[in-house]
Design goal:
The protein is of the alpha/beta class and 260 residues long. It is built from 10 helices and 7 strands.
């Protein structure tokens, strides 16, 4: 992955590193970034292979991705959505001085069902999306966006905004999408959670059809300094359909004392 990952810096105050999910780019944070930038300095990441970092080759090595982001950002709280949450977990393990705290949004430590982790989805979901990319690139992206909004009480509006956000930036390349699906399919942090000492907030959409809220509650219970919160009507992208609630909960965590 030669080159430097693109980081968009906005606002002033304590530092937040915000890492988007599969197939998207930093613009997906939209209105919540506007709100958070009034009190915090945001480092909005375009993950390699996505957005303004599209020309960087994305491989499935999460340690390499986390290191690239950390090289361009100060010590901060990391906010990771979905695949971005996996990148944040890897940063917490490898680079604890850089990733001081975490907010993990709609993230599963193992997105697929395993013998020791039943709170996931069937591996075939990600294998199927990978197979479909060759036949129908745009259609596959659109179907994934539908899955991300399914169940939300603002599903129609959330889907419209996700599609608009996707097309307002550079569409990721095929290699990046394949590598991202491999990350979602193969990564398993369940055994590592007990050794992650940073404070963390696991923030779930109550109607998320991709990451069961129970998986995030279980993950939080396995970490020594983690808490869990559920946004009842939200789907897999709770910062879009429920931005006000999302910002309130994020700022409550950020403003709390070090042991709260």
């Amino acid at each position: 992955m030669p080159g430097r990952v693109v980081i968009h810096v906005r606002g002033s105050g304590p530092d937040l590193v915000m890492v988007h999910g599969w197939g998207m780019h930093s613009g997906v944070w939209g209105r919540v970034a506007n709100d958070l930038a009034t009190r915090w300095r945001l480092h909005l990441v375009d993950v390699p292979g996505h957005g303004a970092s599209r020309d960087m080759r994305l491989g499935p090595d999460l340690s390499a991705i986390a290191a690239l982001i950390a090289a361009e950002t100060p010590p901060a709280t990391w906010i990771g959505w979905s695949m971005g949450g996996l990148i944040s977990l890897q940063a917490a393990i490898d680079l604890p001085r850089q990733c001081e705290r975490m907010i993990l949004v709609a993230t599963n430590p193992s997105f697929v069902v395993r013998d020791h982790w039943p709170q996931g989805v069937d591996e075939a979901l990600f294998t199927g999306f990978a197979d479909e990319l060759n036949r129908d690139f745009q259609g596959t992206l659109n179907r994934f966006l539908v899955l991300e909004t399914l169940g939300s009480d603002t599903a129609r509006e959330s889907l419209r905004r996700l599609k608009a956000d996707l097309h307002n930036g550079q569409v990721p390349d095929l290699h990046a999408l394949r590598s991202g699906l491999k990350i979602l399919r193969d990564t398993d942090y369940t055994a590592a959670l007990s050794g992650i000492g940073q404070q963390a907030l696991w923030l779930a959409g109550g109607r998320d059809k991709l990451v069961p809220p129970g998986a995030m509650k279980k993950a939080a219970s396995l970490m020594p300094r983690a808490q869990f919160h559920r946004l009842p009507g939200a789907g897999h992208a709770p910062f879009i359909g429920h931005g006000g609630e999302f910002v309130t909960r994020v700022e409550r965590f950020l403003c709390a004392g070090p042991e709260s």
